[in-house]
Backbone:
């Protein structure tokens, strides 16, 4: 076949399909008579072409395991929309591939927005397996970092490395490291020292001097470290830091710190999420003066840590429901937000019941071992603590609701709760419950909770016949002890004890219920008919809610001035008839002790008469009983009133409430004169009262 003869059709395509290379030969220099020969398979050393040998050499270089070379490679892009390239010029082909796969670390360089700079580092890709293993140990527990990924990428400004810079240095001090691990770690360290030199130097300088700038605030807030803030009127609270970020809003810029505290949701302990905002500030600020700061920077951190742990133990001991005293500010939730109110008196600590009330915030928590995020609430208002490892905390099984009485033993010796010191330190200082003084559901600060100072003389000072006092106390105590022993024909009915106290004002009806509760050391829940509302639906809801929680607290319930419910029903007032029916029906299922007071019993509904277990009638005070009342009130303060003065005052026709108010007013006059109470002070108030009564008569 001559040189000009064309290749037979399809021969070249067939050769390529079979894996051979079709080679056209020059017949003028070849002894072959064929127009073309089929070369041997690529890779055969005897027959491979020069091009095949070059390809083989390139293939052997790429057989190096990924990330095994102790070196780094740079790749670039002009903007976030561009692809990464291996060359700085405008080359848009993807760069992470055969040219970079063997390097331990790949540095991604991106065009800087700063016109004075060319490229700046965007991120670091870790390809070395030994480096991933080392970082898994160094960054253990760091949120959002998973070193076992095939593609491990860290973006600038490399917060995990900055926060664990000390751990990186310490890791390299280990003499037992394998050579390849040490070399790869040194490579990464050197890269970070070069790229983050300014940040690392600034952090070390800030730590040494206890100051920071707003731009570098992120460097001192390490995830999972303990941070400190304050709420309310300066109550300090410790959190576990989860994450932090800079945010820009129309209202201003701030550094948002998301963190967690240990809280009680009424059923179990768990993590409650908070978000604390650090507003943008100019210049350099002392870290100790920031709205939120790492506990490690507090000047008295060890002393504070101990105080927080002790407070946390008290918080845990007050889980469930408890009867306590309180004196200080409390938080009330209103339509306009939370406000601080002063509260002094008895309170019931009960988060479970608090969360069930309308218009109150629920306490959202996740179990102490859970990784699920809790709902976040916001209030605008370093070294990691290595002594405590939250990952080693024992799982706290949620306790069941305790249905025991608020006995004196439980108050003085609460059931211990097993939390770790780390968890105690992070307990919130906020308790939730009910104020018996202002009759509102409030949030209380634990440092203002006090033991109850019982009035042991209240029952002795009660001006009642001895037999009557003995009866009412015996009935109340027996009811508390045997409430579940007696039942009606219908299950759940008839387990309560209802006592009706009737008589004129100021003769001791309300005081009787108060004295009984003090003697039994149980709460007294007081309300009037007006507290229940006027609409039948409101009355039913409110009364049912009150009866439920009073029974739960084993409290004594006092409904004062309940004439509207006791009066006989008529065919002319259907709305009031419905109120009475609701009241009667709910009382049937009440399990506790109920005191009803009224000034009128002449027109009592017959259905009520059959439901009252004891009816105690109070008469106007006699001169003898009035003298006991005078003696009781005057004896509580310094005075110059003698026996004859008390005898004279006892003849004045006053009821017990009038005597109490008169003594209080006279005492204020005595304090103004800087003297002890005298008969002249009392006479002065009596004269004013008499003049007012004369004007009323006219």
Residues:
């Amino acid at each position: 076949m001559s040189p000009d003869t064309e290749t037979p059709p399809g021969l070249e395509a067939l050769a390529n399909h079979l894996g051979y290379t079709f080679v056209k030969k020059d017949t003028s220099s070849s002894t072959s008579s064929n127009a073309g020969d089929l070369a041997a398979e690529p890779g055969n050393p005897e027959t491979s072409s020069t091009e095949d040998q070059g390809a083989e050499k390139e293939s052997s270089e790429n057989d190096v395991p990924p990330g095994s070379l102790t070196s780094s490679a740079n790749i670039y892009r002009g903007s976030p929309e561009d692809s990464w390239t291996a060359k700085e010029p405008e080359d848009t082909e993807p760069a992470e591939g055969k040219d970079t796969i063997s390097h331990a670390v790949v540095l991604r360089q991106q065009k800087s927005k700063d016109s004075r700079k060319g490229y700046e580092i965007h991120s670091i890709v870790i390809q070395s397996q030994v480096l991933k293993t080392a970082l898994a140990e160094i960054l253990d527990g760091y949120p959002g970092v998973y070193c076992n990924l095939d593609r491990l990428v860290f973006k600038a400004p490399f917060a995990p490395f900055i926060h664990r810079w000390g751990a990186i240095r310490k890791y390299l001090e280990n003499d037992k490291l394998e050579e390849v691990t040490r070399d790869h770690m040194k490579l990464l360290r050197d890269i970070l020292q070069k790229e983050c030199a300014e940040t690392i130097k600034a952090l070390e300088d800030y730590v040494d001097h206890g100051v920071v700038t707003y731009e570098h605030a992120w460097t001192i807030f390490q995830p999972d470290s303990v941070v400190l803030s304050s709420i309310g009127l300066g109550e300090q609270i410790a959190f576990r830091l989860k994450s932090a970020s800079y945010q820009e809003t129309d209202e201003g810029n701030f550094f948002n710190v998301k963190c967690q505290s240990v809280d009680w949701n009424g059923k179990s302990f768990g993590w409650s999420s908070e978000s604390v905002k650090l507003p943008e500030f100019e210049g350099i600020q002392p870290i100790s003066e920031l709205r939120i700061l790492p506990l490690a920077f507090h000047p008295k951190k060890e002393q504070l840590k101990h105080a927080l742990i002790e407070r946390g133990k008290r918080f845990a001991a007050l889980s469930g429901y408890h009867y306590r005293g309180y004196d200080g500010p409390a938080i009330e939730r209103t339509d306009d937000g939370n406000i601080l109110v002063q509260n002094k008196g008895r309170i019931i600590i009960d988060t479970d019941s608090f969360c069930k009330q309308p218009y109150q915030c629920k306490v959202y928590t996740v179990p102490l071992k859970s990784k699920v995020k809790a709902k976040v609430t916001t209030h605008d208002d370093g070294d990691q603590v290595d002594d405590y490892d939250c990952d080693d905390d024992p799982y706290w099984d949620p306790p069941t609701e305790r249905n025991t009485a608020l006995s004196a033993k439980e108050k003085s010796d609460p059931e211990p709760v097993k939390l770790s010191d780390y968890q105690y330190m992070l307990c919130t200082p906020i308790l939730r419950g009910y104020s018996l003084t202002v009759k509102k559901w409030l949030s209380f600060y634990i440092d203002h909770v006090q033991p109850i100072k019982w009035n042991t003389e209240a029952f002795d000072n009660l001006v009642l016949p001895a037999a009557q006092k003995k009866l009412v106390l015996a009935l109340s105590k027996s009811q508390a002890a045997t409430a579940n022993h007696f039942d009606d024909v219908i299950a759940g009915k008839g387990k309560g004890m209802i006592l009706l106290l009737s008589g004129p004002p100021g003769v001791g009806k309300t005081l009787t219920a108060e004295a009984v509760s003090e003697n039994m050391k149980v709460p007294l829940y007081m309300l009037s008919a007006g507290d229940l509302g006027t609409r039948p639906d409101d009355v039913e809801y409110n009364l049912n809610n009150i009866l439920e929680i009073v029974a739960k607290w084993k409290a004594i319930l006092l409904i004062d001035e309940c004439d509207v419910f006791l009066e006989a029903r008529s065919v002319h007032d259907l709305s009031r008839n419905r109120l009475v029916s609701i009241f009667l029906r709910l009382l049937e299922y009440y399990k506790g002790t109920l005191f009803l007071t009224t000034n009128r019993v002449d027109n009592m509904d017959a259905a009520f008469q059959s439901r009252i277990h004891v009816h105690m009638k109070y008469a106007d005070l006699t001169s003898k009983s009035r003298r006991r009342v005078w003696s009781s009130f005057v004896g509580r303060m310094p005075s110059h009133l003698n026996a004859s003065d008390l005898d004279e005052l006892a003849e004045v026709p006053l009821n017990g409430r009038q005597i109490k108010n008169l003594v209080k007013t006279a005492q204020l006059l005595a304090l103004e004169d800087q003297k002890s109470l005298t008969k002249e002070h009392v006479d002065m108030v009596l004269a004013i009262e008499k003049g007012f009564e004369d004007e009323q008569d006219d």
Remarks:
- The chain has 21 helices and 24 strands.
- Residues 69-195 form one domain.
- The mean pLDDT is 79.
- Residues 241 and 475 are 55 Å apart (CA to CA).
